[in-house]
């Protein structure tokens, strides 16, 4: 299938060629024709599937086909609601690329930055508004945002918007839109609240489901290091001696943890910046740009901040902390291996995180290969549940190591083979004395 066969107009085809997109992804293939035909859409798909273009391309085409504008000033004809600032900026960047040969204007409205410029943008008028719900509600309440002309509504990452507590804001925004409109609804998961939203907002939607969350993990090489909490930083520094890890997105559980890790890496002369909710929008954008341009080697992020970050050709994701929600693991590692690229995901698991690991492995229906011989093996005491000592056949051999980040001869146990490995467990920890 080609983009031409999807009946996209030449200015869009030209923009896609400039992006080096040679063929549509499955969600684009399935979503573009019904959206162009005016149908509502429910897409069960996550970031990395090409879903942004799946909704932006037909929206751009539909809006540019309409001639003339009432009273000369542009009115908001499409509203895209998305959970985070980064995702909003990403959508806006994509819009600018795909719509570069057409005369459409967009604006982004997000929290965390001054409202003034956003008021001015609304004053000037636009065709497409990309917004996070909280700031949009503020501007609507102050009379700045007029949504009476919206023809196409997109709810992007709706499940994440629910998780983030935006449901009331979403409903209040939707109540201000014309009842007669086209609605495109995207969600990576399908909890009951999402189902009832879909039922109440969509009319006879086209339903498309792309790669269930558990199968994303299959194309990404994964590696697991059992390590005690205080040894995580030394282990990371050790792995980063390998220059083939040119850059990596590192996930921590907390904002403080992210800041602490950046300080530790910086002390070890590894360039790193953090991106999380306590940072201003400008600081987050600067950190992201520095990372994209290779000024910093490590971008340390919390889950919410990282949602929607789109970095082309990201080769490594490092889980400095394992997430307690197993789906989050899949979202995180899905940052690498995008658009068919293969990526590497390295995870550190401390003792307290073993239950999270079990949930993750249950979800992805795989055992994550364990790197046994590293310099900081986890210690173990008699109270360690037998369940976690289970024999693993998936211990990665030194030849088969996926990280290439491990250097021979640095392992304190190297001289005596796998001396530190718990007998018979295949687990790379040593007994706590
Ligand atoms: P998304 O799922 O929308 O976040 O897109 C994931 C990544 O895939 C982004 O970097 C897009 O630029 C890229 N992408 C989207 N569609 C295509 C395509 N048809 N061919 C190649 N790359 C694409």
Characterize the structure shown:
By secondary structure, the chain is an alpha/beta fold. The protein has two domains: 4-64 and 71-210, P-loop containing nucleotide triphosphate hydrolases (Rossmann fold); 220-400, Rossmann fold (3-Layer(aba) Sandwich), CATH 3.40.50. It has helices spanning 10-18, 26-36, 51-65, 85-98, 116-124, 133-141, 158-163, 167-175, 192-201, 232-239, 255-267, 281-292, 303-306, 326-333, 354-364, and strands at residues 41-44, 78-81, 106-109, 128-131, 152-155, 182-187, 206-209, 221-226, 248-251, 272-275, 298-301, 316-319, 344-349, 370-371, 379-380, 395-396, 430-431. The protein has a seven-stranded parallel beta sheet, with helices on both faces. Strand 10 (272-275), helix 12 and strand 11 form a beta-alpha-beta unit. The longest helix is centred in the N-terminal third of the chain and has 15 residues, at 51-65. The chain is globular, with a radius of gyration of 24 Å. The model is unreliable at 387-433 (pLDDT under 50). It binds adenosine monophosphate.
* CATH fold-level topology of the largest domain: Rossmann fold
**Radius of gyration from CA coordinates:** 24 Å
Task: Determine the strand fraction and express it as a percent band.
Answer: 15-25%
Looking at this structure, what is the CATH superfamily of the largest domain? P-loop containing nucleotide triphosphate hydrolases
Number of helices: 15
In angstroms, what separates the terminal alpha carbons? 62 Å
Query: Structurally, how many domains make up the residues?
Result: 2
Derived from helix and strand composition plus strand pairing, the structural class reads alpha/beta
Largest sheet: 7 strands, parallel
The shape is: globular
Poorly predicted residue ranges: 387-433
Across the major sheet, the strand order is: 3-4-2-5-6-1-7
Percent of residues in helices: 25-40%
Strand segment count: 17
> In the CATH hierarchy, what is the class of the largest domain?
Alpha Beta
What is the correct CATH architecture of the largest domain? 3-Layer(aba) Sandwich
Query: Which ligands does the model contain, each kind named once?
Result: adenosine monophosphate
Task: Compute the average pLDDT.
Answer: 84
């Amino acid at each position: 299938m080609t983009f031409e066969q999807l009946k996209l107009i030449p200015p869009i085809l030209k923009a896609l060629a400039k992006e080096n997109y040679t063929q549509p992804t499955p969600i684009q293939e399935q979503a573009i024709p019904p959206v162009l035909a005016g149908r509502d859409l429910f897409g069960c798909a996550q970031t990395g599937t090409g879903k942004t273009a799946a909704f932006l391309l037909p929206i751009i085409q539909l809006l540019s086909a309409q001639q003339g504008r009432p009273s000369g000033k542009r009115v908001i004809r499409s509203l895209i609601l998305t959970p985070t600032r980064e995702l909003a900026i990403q959508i806006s960047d994509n819009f600018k690329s795909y719509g570069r040969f057409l005369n459409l204007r967009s604006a982004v409205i997000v929290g965390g930055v001054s409202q003034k410029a956003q008021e001015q943008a609304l004053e000037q008028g636009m065709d497409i508004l990309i917004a996070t719900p909280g700031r949009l509600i503020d501007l609507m309440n102050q009379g700045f945002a007029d949504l009476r002309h919206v023809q196409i509504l997109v709810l992007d990452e709706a499940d994440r918007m629910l998780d983030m507590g935006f449901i009331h804001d979403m409903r209040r925004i939707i109540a201000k839109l014309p009842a007669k409109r086209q609605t495109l609804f995207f969600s990576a998961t399908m909890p009951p609240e999402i189902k009832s939203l879909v039922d109440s907002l969509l009319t006879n939607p086209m339903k498309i489901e792309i790669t269930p969350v558990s199968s994303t993990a299959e194309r990404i090489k994964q590696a697991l290091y059992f390590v005690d909490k205080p040894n995580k930083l030394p282990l990371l520094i050790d792995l980063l001696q390998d220059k083939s890890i040119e850059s990596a997105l590192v996930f921590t559980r907390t904002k403080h943890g992210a800041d602490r890790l950046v300080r530790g890496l910086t002390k070890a002369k590894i360039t790193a910046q953090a991106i999380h909710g306590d940072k201003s929008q400008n600081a987050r954008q600067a950190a992201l740009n520095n990372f994209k341009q290779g000024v910093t080697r490590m971008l340390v992020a919390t889950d919410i901040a990282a949602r929607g970050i789109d970095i082309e050709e990201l080769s490594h994701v490092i889980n400095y902390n394992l997430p307690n929600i197993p789906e989050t693991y899949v979202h995180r590692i899905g940052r690498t291996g995008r658009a068919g690229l293969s990526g590497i995901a390295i995870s550190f698991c401390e003792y307290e995180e073993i239950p999270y690991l079990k949930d993750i492995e249950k979800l992805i229906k795989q055992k994550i290969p364990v790197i046994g011989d590293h310099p900081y093996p986890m210690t173990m005491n008699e109270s360690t549940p037998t369940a976690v000592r289970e024999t693993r056949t998936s211990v990665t051999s030194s030849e088969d190591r996926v990280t290439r980040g491990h250097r021979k001869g640095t392992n304190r146990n190297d001289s005596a083979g796998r001396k530190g490995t718990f007998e018979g467990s295949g687990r790379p920890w040593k007994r706590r004395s």
